[in-house]
What does this fold into?
Amino acid sequence: MPVLLGLAAAQPTLRRSTIHHVRTDAAAFFVIDTSRSMLAAPSAGATTRFERARSDALALRSDLADLPAGIASLTDRLLPHLFPTGSTSAFRSTLERAIGVERPPPERVAQRATTLFGLTALSTQNYFADSAKRRVVIVFTDGESSPFDQSELANDFRGAHIRPVFIHVWNDDERVFGKNGKAESYRPDPASSGDLDRLARAAGGRVFSEHDLGDAARAVRAEVGNGPRVVTGRDESSYSLTPYAAFAALLALAFVLWQRNLWGLVRIPDLPARAAKPI
It folds into this structure.
């Protein structure tokens, strides 16, 4: 038992190293809609669209681990936060720490400031390296955009060989709740689904519900196909073994106490004294 207690005090850890093989001819950008409507939720305190989008992005990134992936946020303009990389840890930390609703806020003030036309920056501002011949943009959005010329964005995507995959994060019973728990005047736009469908068709892309991530991953795989891969590095992860060592010490202590109490309950009868034999 002292050995186990000493082991727990030493705070042992198990380290695991994962080698990354990533594609050299393909890349993806994960775009998260960070407009205020992404704060909508079924009820006060429930998971918001933004929180679901971020969780879905992490899950989809895990399914596409060998595809270099970047991150951008979208309101009325597109902002890059991470350019395509094979590091899943960099992707996770960027998504968890650098992305937030209206961080930064849109440049213009309007009832609906978001415009999906901001995605055109992906085709005009060197978001993708020249070596990435197969390009996919995965957009997590509620689809509630101010009007824009869909054909222009579609032509820009086609000209830059970008295939869009839209993840529609939306339900018609959601509201935006203030800090006091009261619903604001926002109402979901039922036309958002049709708008996304038309844009996707025009750009040669697909639309999926937030509940169909498996199908979305397969669609991305179909777009990028197979290609050359290289080793780009390692991801280091560590797991603390201290709780297990402490638990083992507690089990050992419990066994010792149980054994001691058991022997205390068992009484060994006194043997009768033998009479001394006369000499």
